[in-house]
Design goal:
Number of strands: 3
Number of helices: 13
Shape: globular
CATH architecture of the largest domain: Orthogonal Bundle
CATH class of the largest domain: Mainly Alpha
Largest sheet: 3 strands, antiparallel
CATH topology of the largest domain: hpI Integrase, Chain A
CATH superfamily of the largest domain: Intergrase catalytic core
Distance between the termini: 73 Å
Strand order of the largest sheet: 1-2-3
């Protein structure tokens, strides 16, 4: 009977599709699994063995209402943005079902909750210079940290993209870096002359032949595979390192690797780069994502209006 298909099995098939066909990251798959499992558990409270036909407008409305009253481990209510992540995963699941000829309600009928407009956190050029000048470059660890900070700011890389880099993905002569971003999407980013200088100094100081571009120097210092994978620096290590130098620089504003990514985009747009080019450099699939940098683009539009409109002369 149409609609009698086991909902739990369909969700697992969808997650397999994301992993195999769409090449989504393990983090994305884990998040989608969490969001859809919450929906499954909600329906199970009403019906022990949820089927596809249990995805009804009534159940969807009730689930959304439950999200608005759901509390986090810290005791606060789920933010509108977080509630939106649930609905994004759910809509993606419905679209997959539709493409596979299952009879379900249209994904377009699932509206995302309207939340507060997100603001971009970035640091000024002066604050950026203070941060970048904090590592002590007389040691290889300091050279590594300096190279990481310079690379983050000059390329706009996501921290996950940075830690995944191998040495052979960097062409120091042309200042190009081959990156595999979200969804396995490949792109080329460019680094500044200053970032190249510090990367060169760091790589010369490396006394190993390991593949990862950035390796740790604490804990066990040898790798049984000879490729150095167990020594690859992780995302949390980069985040802690940036925070360490933020405190050392005496910066009040919270600085993360993603703030440096925002600062990279802000720096380019402030200097005259167009939005489409910045979109490509950031690896945004949709230019609408890049339009969060209205704090820069709005100001530039005002300057253009003031300079060129005849009524201002």
């Amino acid at each position: 009977m149409a609609g009698s298909e086991n909902l739990s099995k369909l969700i697992l098939s969808f997650l397999e599709y994301l992993e195999i066909e769409k090449n989504r990251s393990p983090l994305t798959i884990r998040n989608y699994h969490h969001y859809l499992s919450q929906l499954l558990e909600f329906i199970k409270n009403k019906k022990p063995s949820p089927a596809l036909l249990d995805i009804t407008p009534e159940n969807i409305r009730a689930f959304r209402k439950s999200l608005s009253s759901k509390k986090t481990l810290k005791g606060s209510y789920l933010k509108k943005k977080t509630q939106g992540y649930y609905m994004i995963a759910f809509r993606s699941f419905l679209r997959w079902l539709t493409r596979n000829d299952y009879e379900v309600i249209s994904a377009d009928k699932i509206e995302l909750p309207k939340g507060e407009k997100s603001t971009v956190k970035f640091i000024t050029p002066q604050e950026t210079e203070r941060l970048l000048n904090q590592p002590t470059v007389s040691r290889v660890i300091g050279l590594r940290d300096k190279a990481i900070l310079e690379l983050l700011f000059s390329s706009g890389l996501r921290v996950s993209e940075l830690v995944a880099l191998n040495k052979d993905q960097i062409n120091l002569k042309s200042r190009e870096v081959g990156v595999v971003g979200k969804g396995g999407k490949q792109r080329v980013v460019f680094i500044s002359y200053r970032a190249r200088k510090w990367l060169e100094r760091y790589l010369v100081a490396r006394a190993d032949h390991y593949q990862p571009l950035f390796v740790r120097y604490s804990g066990k210092k040898t790798d049984p595979t000879t490729k150095g994978e167990s020594l690859r620096l992780g995302v949390r290590s980069i985040q802690r390192m940036v925070e360490k130098y933020r405190r050392k620089a005496g910066l009040v504003v919270k600085v993360t690797p993603h703030v440096l990514r925002h600062s990279f985009a802000t720096d380019l747009l402030s200097s005259g780069a167009d939005l489409r080019s910045v979109q490509e450099l950031l690896g945004h699939q949709n230019v609408a994502t890049t339009q969060i940098y209205t704090h820069v683009t709005d100001r530039r539009l005002r300057e253009i209006h003031d300079k060129y409109h005849s009524g201002n002369k």
